[in-house]
Design goal:
By secondary structure, the protein is of the alpha/beta class. The protein has 15 helices and 16 strands. It is elongated and about 105 Å long.
Amino acid sequence: MQHLRIERLSRKTHAGVVEALEFRDGLNLVTGPPNAGKTQWVRMLDYLFGDPEPFFNRFPRENFAQYESIAAEVRLGSESFQLERFIGLDGMKTKVEIDGTSHDLKGFQHWLLGKLDYPPVRYPKGVSSLERTWPELSFRTLYRHIYRQQRFWSDLADRQTPIETSACILQFLDLAADVYGEDLQKLRSLRERADRHAVEIYAGRMALWLMAGGSTAELPDAKALNALNPKRIVSKLQEELSALEAAIQLGPESTAPAQIPDRARLEQLVADARRAGEGHERLRSAEVLQSWSSTSEVHLKQTQQEIWELSERIRLADLSDMLKKRTDFLCEAMNEYLRLVNQLNPQLWRHRDVSIRISRRNELQLCVGDVQWDRALGGSDGLLFLMAYHYGLLSLSAQDEFRYPGIVVVDFPAYFRGRAISEIEGLVTKPFADLLEREAFSTCQVIFVGASFSGENRCHRIMLDSGYLH
């Protein structure tokens, strides 16, 4: 797995002045007083990584008026690249330059994923089969788990559905391509097709039932519709039409003047002829519905057979053991972080261990004990849990079987649920500093943004003051 590191982040003013921050491997601490512009720096990095929103929707107006572009020197594995995004230049607002070559945002996302050795993955989005789409799992979606914004400390990733979050974790565990592989996509497609055939059969039988004299006031249930025989209804309509046509036949002798029917009889014959015409239309419709229903039944049986065969193939390639093994590794790393925190401040974490619940659809739900984490925790415990999550993800970076890019960016709020973060900044940072000292994590990078992080010296410290525009 290739690692991503930020070596230099800069922004250029319209006057040509370049402001820059230099980063190193290991722990980087960006500190400074309130309104020093710390948060804007990491938000600009996020924007550079392909945010589709216009710059003026994300940043204060004075930023838009002041800056011309945002740039970064990044290292992807052993290669270095210069990225730049122009803020207000016409034709360039939705493009990112890579070493001077422009790419649209989608192409830039594909380039990043390729450089980081991520396999292309599509995941299901939407609840019902009619609403479901299969969007690509982009770097932007993954980056929501790498970068924690100052504003979003209430969930694992901001503005993500559970299935999106699961897809990201599975990608980091190097299982997304298997879980959302071609067989599973095909199986879901087959099930959706079977649903459509079932609806077609239901609609056809309902229409036939109404043609046979059924009342819309009392619609039949599924059992009654299943018992309905389309051929018998068509035969019944044919018999009714034949009887009607026989009743209106005048015969050759009826053409004699003496045999012309009286007015009442003639009106009856005209009405019967009209009914016969309607009967022909109804019969033709019934025959079409019968054919359509029969074809749908054949297609449904074929699709059900394909579903069974494909389900068997997927069952034989069961991923549950591998999924459990890898989620257990992530949980253990998270629990390690929480144990380390407790060693520094006994009883700070007074909850059960972290676990991951896996649904039948391979959706992942992080829990504390058996309870979903955000329901189990309150106060600063939620912050500790989320920092454990970032620690757990970073721990994947040293293992060949996982696909985490070895970088964490966290922008701490000044307060979290009523408690000043400055009270525990150093405490939550120390386990990361310890982890980054291990040789296996020598090419990893952590960027923390906060007030002071007092007491931590094993870092590259970047101190800002109010001289930077924020």
